[in-house]
C-alpha cells in the first residue's frame, strides 16, 4: 500500500493540534489516513562523539523518524548555508549573505546523511514529499540511493530571479538537484516564473506550456500551489467563548481605541522597522490618530544566533521607545511591543478584536498571518487588511489595501484609509477575501500537490 512520507527540516508535534499551525494539521491528517511517515531533525544538537541514530516512534498511526545534528552540522548546514546563504538570497537580500566553503560542504553532507537514513525506510510505492530550502538536494541524494518512487518538493519561501540566484555559489547544482523530483511547487506564479526563467535561459530548458519543464534529460511538473490555512479551525478559535472574554477585557482596558495589529517572527524580511516608521508617520500626518490608535506588534524571536537578527531587534526596540517617548501619554502608549510567542488561540482573538491587520513584509513566500486575519474577522464589523504587495498572499488577496513596504508615506496613507473606511466598504472587501481564503485552504493546497504527484507517477 502506498504511503505518504513527509520530509522537513523540523518535525511537528501532532499532539499540539491547532496550536501547531495549519501546515502541521494538514500534513498530520494526510499522514494519519495513510499510516504515513514524517522524517526530519529532532531539534537536538549533539556534542562531539554523540551517536547520530535515527529514532522511530509512533503517534496516532503516524511513524516519526527523527535524527539529531552535530554542532558542526548545525553551524554549517542550518545556520550556515541554509540561513546565511539561501534564506537571505531567496528573499532578495544578497547584501546579507555570508558564504563560506564549509557551509556548502556541510549542507551537502547533511542532505547526504539524511538521505542515507531515510532511503531504507522508503518502500517501493511510497510518495515522498520534501519541504523547503534546507532540503533542496535531498531528492537527488535519495535517487542515488535507489529510491525510484514519486518525489515532490515544495518551496515555502520566495524563489529569486536568475540574476539573484546566480550570486549563490553552486546555484547550478541546486537547480539540477530539483530535476530529480517529479513535481516542484512554488507559492506564487511569480516564483514559478523565476524558476522557469533560470532553467530556460541558463540551462537550455524547454517549457511545454502545460506546466511541464524539461532540462538535464528529465521532464518535471512545475506549478504554483499557494498554501492556505485551516480557515474554519482558525475562525472557531477566534469566535470561542474564551476569545469573546479576551476581546471584552481588551476593550475594557486600553484598546477601546483603534487597534492595529502586526504578528511576525523577528526577521529582517518582515519589514518591521519600516512598519514602525509608517505608524509614526501616521501620527505625524494625521494627528487625529494620537491617543486614538495603538499598534500592537508581536514579534517572537527566531534564529538569534545570526547577527542580522540581533541587529534588527535592537533597531525595533529603539524605534518603539522613540515613538512612545515622542507621542505617548500617561493614558496612551502608541506602540505595544511583545517579543515572545503567543498561543494561536490568543492571536485569533486579537485579530478579531483589532480594526486593522498590518502585514507588510519586504518579501515573503506567502504569509499566512494575512489569511488568518481574514478568517478571524466578524463579518458584520470586519477589520481591514493592509498587505505588502511583496507578500505571496498579495497575488490572491487583491481586496486588501496593497502597499509598497519601502514607501513609508504610502503605508501611512493606507493605515489612515483603513482606520476611516466605511462599514459598507469593509464588509464588501472582507466578503471577497473570506470567500477566497475558504476556497483555497490548506487542504486544497495539499490535495492539489499530491494529486499532481500521483498523476505524474501514473
Provide the CATH architecture of the largest domain: 3-Layer(aba) Sandwich
Instruction: Specify the oligomeric state.
Output: single chain
CATH homolog superfamily of the largest domain: Glycogen Phosphorylase B
- Uncertain runs: none
Instruction: Provide the CATH top-level class of the largest domain.
Output: Alpha Beta
How is the biggest beta sheet arranged? 10 strands, mixed
CATH fold label of the largest domain: Rossmann fold
Number of DSSP E strands: 16
Assign the structural class, choosing from mainly alpha, mainly beta, alpha/beta, alpha+beta, or little secondary structure.
alpha/beta
C-alpha Rg (nearest Å) = 23 Å
Order of strands in the sheet with most strands: 3-4-2-1-5-6-7-10-9-8
Mean pLDDT: 92
Kindly list the characteristics that best describe this protein.
458 residues, alpha/beta, Rossmann fold, 2 domains, ten-stranded mixed sheet, 16 strands, globular
Provide structural commentary.
The protein is built from 16 helices and 16 strands. With 458 residues, it is α/β, with parallel strands linked by helices. It folds into two domains: 241 residues, Rossmann fold, CATH 3.40.50.2000; 209 residues, 3-Layer(aba) Sandwich (Rossmann fold). Strands 3-4-2-1-5-6-7-10-9-8 form a ten-stranded mixed beta sheet, with helices on both faces. Strands 13-12-11-14-15-16 form a six-stranded parallel beta sheet, sandwiched between helices. Helix 2 packs across helix 3. The longest helix is centred in the last third of the chain and has 21 residues.
Amino acid at each position: 500500500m502506498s504511503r505518504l512520507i513527509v520530509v522537513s527540516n523540523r518535525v511537528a508535534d501532532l499532539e499540539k493540534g491547532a496550536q501547531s499551525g495549519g501546515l502541521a494539521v494538514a500534513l498530520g491528517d494526510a499522514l494519519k489516513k495513510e499510516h504515513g511517515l514524517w522524517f526530519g531533525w529532532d531539534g537536538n544538537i549533539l556534542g562531539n562523539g554523540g551517536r547520530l541514530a535515527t529514532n522511530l516512534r509512533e503517534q496516532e498511526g503516524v511513524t516519526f523518524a527523527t535524527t539529531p545534528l552535530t554542532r558542526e552540522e548545525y553551524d554549517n548546514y542550518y545556520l550556515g548555508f541554509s540561513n546565511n546563504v539561501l534564506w537571505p538570497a531567496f528573499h532578495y537580500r544578497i547584501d546579507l549573505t555570508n558564504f563560506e566553503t564549509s557551509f556548502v560542504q556541510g549542507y551537502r553532507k547533511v542532505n547526504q546523511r539524511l538521505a542515507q537514513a531515510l532511503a531504507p525506510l522508503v518502500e517501493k510505492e511510497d510518495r515522498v514529499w520534501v519541504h523547503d530550502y534546507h532540503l533542496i538536494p535531498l531528492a537527488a541524494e535519495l535517487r542515488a540511493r535507489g529510491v525510484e518512487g514519486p518525489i515532490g518538493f515544495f518551496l515555502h519561501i520566495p524563489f529569486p530571479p536568475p540574476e539573484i540566484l546566480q550570486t549563490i555559489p553552486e546555484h547550478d547544482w541546486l537547480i539540477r538537484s530539483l530535476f530529480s523530483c517529479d513535481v516542484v511547487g512554488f507559492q506564487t506564479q511569480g516564483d514559478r516564473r523565476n524558476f522557469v526563467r533560470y532553467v530556460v535561459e541558463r540551462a537550455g530548458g524547454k517549457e511545454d506550456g502545460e506546466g511541464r519543464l524539461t532540462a538535464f534529460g528529465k521532464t518535471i511538473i512545475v506549478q504554483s500551489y499557494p498554501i492556505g490555512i485551516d480557515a474554519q479551525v482558525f475562525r472557531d478559535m477566534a469566535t470561542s467563548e474564551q476569545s469573546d472574554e479576551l476581546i471584552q477585557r481588551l476593550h475594557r482596558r486600553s484598546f477601546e481605541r483603534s487597534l492595529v495589529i502586526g504578528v511576525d517572527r523577528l526577521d529582517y524580511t518582515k519589514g518591521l522597522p519600516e512598519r514602525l516608521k509608517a505608524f509614526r508617520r501616521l501620527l505625524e500626518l494625521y494627528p487625529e490618530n494620537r491617543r486614538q490608535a495603538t499598534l500592537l506588534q508581536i514579534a517572537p524571536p527566531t534564529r538569534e544566533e545570526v547577527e542580522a537578527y540581533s541587529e534588527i531587534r535592537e533597531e525595533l526596540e529603539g524605534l518603539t521607545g522613540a515613538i512612545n517617548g515622542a507621542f505617548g501619554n500617561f493614558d496612551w502608549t502608541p506602540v505595544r511591543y511583545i517579543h515572545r510567542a503567543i498561543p494561536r488561540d490568543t492571536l485569533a482573538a486579537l485579530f478579531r478584536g483589532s480594526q486593522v491587520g498590518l502585514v507588510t513584509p519586504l518579501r515573503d513566500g506567502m504569509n499566512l498571518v494575512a489569511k488568518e486575519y481574514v478568517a478571524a474577522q466578524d463579518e458584520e464589523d470586519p477589520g481591514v487588511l493592509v498587505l505588502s504587495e511583496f507578500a505571496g498572499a498579495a497575488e490572491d488577496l487583491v481586496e486588501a489595501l496593497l502597499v509598497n513596504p519601502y514607501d513609508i508615506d504610502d503605508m501611512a496613507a493606507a493605515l489612515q484609509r483603513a482606520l476611516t473606511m466605511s462599514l459598507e466598504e469593509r464588509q464588501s472587501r472582507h466578503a471577497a477575501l473570506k470567500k477566497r481564503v475558504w476556497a483555497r485552504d490548506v487542504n486544497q493546497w495539499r490535495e492539489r500537490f499530491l494529486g499532481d504527484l500521483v498523476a505524474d507517477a501514473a
